[in-house]
UniProtKB/TrEMBL annotation:
Top-level taxonomic group: Bacteria
Protein name: Acetyl xylan esterase domain-containing protein
InterPro entries in UniProt: AB_hydrolase_fold, FrsA_esterase
Protein's organism: Jiangella anatolica
Family as reported in the entry's similarity comment: Belongs to the AB hydrolase superfamily.
Amino acid sequence: MTADLFAGYDRRFRRALDTAPERRPWVDDERMSILAAARRCLGLDPQLVPSLEVRTGQVGETAGEAWTTEHLQATSWPGVWCAADLYLPQVNGPAPAVILACGHADGAKRAPAYRALAGLLARQGVAVLVSDNLGQGERAAMGHQEVPGVFACDLSLQGLIVMETMAWLRWLRADPRIDRARIGLVGNSGGGLLSLLAGALCRDDLAVVSSSGFPSRFTFVARKEKQLCHCTLLPGIVGELEMWQLYGSIAPTPLLLFQGRDDHFFPEDLFWETARRTFTAFDRAGAAGRFAAEVLPGGHGWDARRRRLLARFVCAHLGVLWQETVTDPPQPPLPACLPAWPRAALTTEQLARRLSGCDREAADLADVFPSDVPSEPVPLLRGDPRLIAAQYEAFLRDGLAVSLR
């Protein structure tokens, strides 16, 4: 019986793709339609984007050889606490900057690969902002991996993360130490998804974008037969948009896509297909020379070679003259931005209820996106079939959970 139900999903996914609207990102009104569809799938309301209140002096800073790292406490929405590191290079005048979007690397903003890239860029004279996403790093108490109540409120976890990233971008643009005309956005894996979405939605405020460890198809991600992190779930995106359309919407802002040849999450052939379609969009937009795609040896994460590729691309498009330097300079230990988690801090699901005015709770994702699939074990399926089917229902949904209230 369960096998028949999953075969039914095969047919539904095919139908969704067969009826997907044609949207060309190089045509202005169709690009606007792409962005509107992305906002719908994210549950993103521009009026809900928060205004950050940053407390720069609460923790202090750590001095390095060529830069200083400020440890930031902030609130985004009322009751929502943030933690971030700002790497400030020793330069005269406003510095170019990069927002480094975190993925699921251990340590979140303090992951060794992130710190190494931030140090490499800071040595070139580029400021780097690295913040913990909702429910990650110092904010783990908020909840991230499974937050079904967010979807019950007509929102999405990724939508909340994108809105907070927009707030950090606004904050950077208002900082007199930063050159607001030269700000970039980069990310790998889950950060690659974030840089894809925020890059497309904030294109006009960005000077360069890079997305790695994620370029593929939303359909490929949606059809994975395992339980996904809830930040990956984009309700209704299948049959609505594909990644290349959003990547293409970043044109003419320079864009670098790359991944490891041995990345076990995303096949190389799918990367190249997405890169080809994205190049076509850039070419039609008259920006072919501003797009680059690379596959390098290695796995899913950023190694030294990929960090160097990324840093050189970023510097080239921020107008920074590249100087050869130590790839991974030693870095001192850093103090916590939030020495103690605030008692009154909201969880991710509480935030969703407050923003939406919805008081509906959900025990799990299947409460929000129900199906006929039971929880009985299925051989070779990686996770609870009921929850995997709920993911399928989410990706195929026409809109979010409003019909279930």
